[in-house]
């Protein structure tokens, strides 16, 4: 069962005690939709078994 992103954002904000003002709510949901699309792209192909995790990134 997939939870609509608007509901997810609302519930996560409550759990984190991180209120989102009404004027920002649509933008936050839109960003989660982008994150979901990117995650689906990354998860859409298998990674080879021999691949290693990246080292710590230090800019």
Number of strands: 0
Please give the radius of gyration in angstroms.
16 Å
**Uncertain spans:** none
The arrangement of helices and strands along the chain is HH
Mind explaining what this structure looks like?
This protein is mostly helical. The chain is 54% helix and 0% strand. It has two helices and no strands. The termini are far apart. The mean pLDDT is 92.
Main features:
59 residues, mainly alpha, 2 helices
Secondary-structure map with pairings?
Layout: H1 5-15, H2 22-42
Task: Offer a quick outline of the entry.
With 59 residues, this protein is mainly α. It has helices at 5-15, 22-42. 54% of the residues lie in helices and 0% in strands.
């Amino acid at each position: 069962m997939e939870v609509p992103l608007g509901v997810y954002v609302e519930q996560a904000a409550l759990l984190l005690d991180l209120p989102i003002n009404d004027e920002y709510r649509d933008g936050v949901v839109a960003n989660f939709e982008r994150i979901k699309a990117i995650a689906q792209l990354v998860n859409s192909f298998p990674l080879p078994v021999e691949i290693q995790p990246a080292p710590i990134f230090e800019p």
